[in-house]
Amino acid sequence: MTLFSRLVNWTSTELMKLSLIIVILAATWSLYRLEFFRVHDFTHAARISEMARALNEGHFPVRWSQNLGFGFGMPLFNFYAPLPYYVGAVLFNLGLDVVLVIKLLYLICTILTTWGAFQLGKEWFGRWGGVLAAAALTLAPYRAVNLFVRGSLSEAWAIAFLPIIIWAMTRIVKQQKSGWSWLIFGLVGLFLSHNITTMLFAPILLIVGLGLLIIQFWPVHSKFEWQNFIKVVSNLLTADLMSLGLAAFYLMPAFLEKDLTKFQTTIISGYFDYRLHFLYIRQFFNPTWMYGGSGWGPNDGISFYLGTGQLLAIFILLLLLGTKALEIVRTHKFTWSRNYNFILIGFLVAGLGLFMSLEKSVKIWQAINVLAYSQFPWRWLSPAIVGIAILAAAVPAVLAKKWWRSLLLVLVWLVVVVGNMASFRPEAYLAESQGYYYTDPAKIQSAMSDILPDYIPLQMAEKLVPPQKLWLNPDLGEDNIEVLVNRTHEKLFRIKSLAPVNLDVALADFPSWQLEIDGQKSVKAQGALGNIQVAIPAGEHLIGIVWAGSQLENLSNSISLVSLIILISLKVYQIQTLANDKKNNYD
Q: How much is the pTM?
């Protein structure tokens, strides 16, 4: 049997699966080489190794990085995107090379993006709508920018959860199975992947939720279903609350303890002032691909192209809708299809995302101060490309003739894949990747710490030199101090001194650290560098410094633990109920 005849005899399901596999391969083909490449943010290996080290030493949930902060440590994972690095740390601890781990994180988020977009497109416009949605989102040029130019792995992971959230909300509104669980999965994944995308997606979430409720419950030919409406809204709200509870261990410190670090001075000033990074409409249509950075004006060294296939899909959709409108005017007959509701939501999501990236939205940015923390207005392209994927999925759904549906489906899919896959590649491969992707603690303390200063505790000195030992006192030698334990979250010394001494520990002070002298809690002080200083009486003493957690962190841990227990209890109850129902039906 020839390949052509085999393709002709393939079922629709087989072709659909093949289409999705091709989409994934088109977005990841650059990863299947031994060499790796440099991106703007090449800190992934350091973050993975620091997370892995902390987990191995029993620090959980991981909040502190031992070697970043110039060897004095900093609470990196209190504030920055822990989920991809938890996954990466598990893979790294299995013995995989760190570059391979990074590639796998790229691959995982791509597969998750494809799957989530397919589920959303299928739910709204049928299976082939799902195929188009998966292609349009997975191969959106902005994803290529994040993965192969900027190296924003966390933002790429966050994007993967956006269609899952919308799909799950749809299932809840339709009162279908598993919607509640998938919504929790999607929201927790988003919360733990990228703070900024979480903040930007919040209004999108509200718009989509209201839109879905209106579509489902707006009384046209029947009275309003109050009972079902209250049930659906309750399920949406409880899923949201459960998700917030599960992610509280991270969200609460991330938003409420950031002022304890240098975050304010490094994140939203100078180059990171949002007013320097608004886009111009023409940039959405400029296909020139570049590997530089963002800057003021329309001539950035980085591309914000929306994609040839994506723009083609929007053009075709507008043409089809315009034709429908002319037909309505001519015949005075109007039938509102359910598909138009979803198309309207797609336009709202895409339109809001694109508008907020333009300077025309500056008054909104000025009125809502918290938006400044997103740094780059073009980050609104994250929700925008989800809206565009929805619109691409709608193209075959507005056509009545099956032949035309198939033709446009194939056309849009091909242009998306062929037109965008070239963007999913690096500028160049490295002959030696260890110069950028290393796990050596000494190099992390020196070179990488200078690149990642954002979450160094606020009181720490500006110029820090990695310490040679765990203490800074030059007059105290190995005969005076013995380091018994030196783990990420725990330090233990035995010190002998003939006179009282102020021990300067090479550890950044932070409210979560608890000092103990001879097993008794004591009050720590701060040294000249902002490090922990301990006043020790003369004699021999055991000095312990333990990550006990701040009150806020311990409260957030408790909320997440209680939420997890409630979730497990609910799932166990659900499983038992289903089992009993099956048994009763069998009897």
A: 0.94
Enumerate the domain spans of the chain.
Answer: 13-42+97-430, 481-549, 550-587
Burial letters for 93-112: b for 16+ Cβ neighbours within 10 Å, e otherwise?
beeeebbebbbbbbebbbbb
Q: Which two tokens stand for residue 224?
A: 């309003």
**Residue 30: DSSP 8-state:** G
560 with 243: CB under 8 angstroms? no
Residues 6+ apart with CB under 8 A from 435: none
User: What does residue 259 show for φ and ψ, rounded to 5 degrees?
Assistant: -70, -10
For the chain, percent helix, then strand, then coil, each to nearest 5? 60, 10, 30
Query: How many C-beta neighbours within 10 Å does residue 328 have?
Result: 12
Judged by average pLDDT, the poorest of 228-242, 325-339, 348-362, 563-577 is 325-339
Tell me how far apart the alpha carbons of residues 433 and 415 are, in angstroms, rounded to a whole number: 34
Q: What is the pLDDT of residues 402-459, one digit of tens each?
A: 777 888 889 999 999 999 999 999 999 998 998 999 999 999 999 999 888 889 999 9
Write down the CATH number for the domain with range 481-549: 2.60.40
Specify whether the CB–CB gap between 168 and 183 falls below 8 A: yes
pLDDT, residue 583, reads 67
CA 531-447-548 angle, 5° bins: 35
The Cα 23–Cα 17 span in angstroms is 10
531, 515 in Cβ contact below 8 A? no
Closest-CA residue to 235 (of 189, 170, 162): 170
Tokens for 245, please give them. 């509870």
Other beta carbons within 10 angstroms of residue 37's beta carbon come to 20
Distance CA 190, CA 372 (A): 20
- Rg of the Cα trace of the chain? 27
Amino acid at 161: F
C-beta neighbour count of 131 within 10 angstroms: 30
CB burial readout 462-484, b (16+ within 10 A) else e? eebebbeeebbbeebeeebbeee
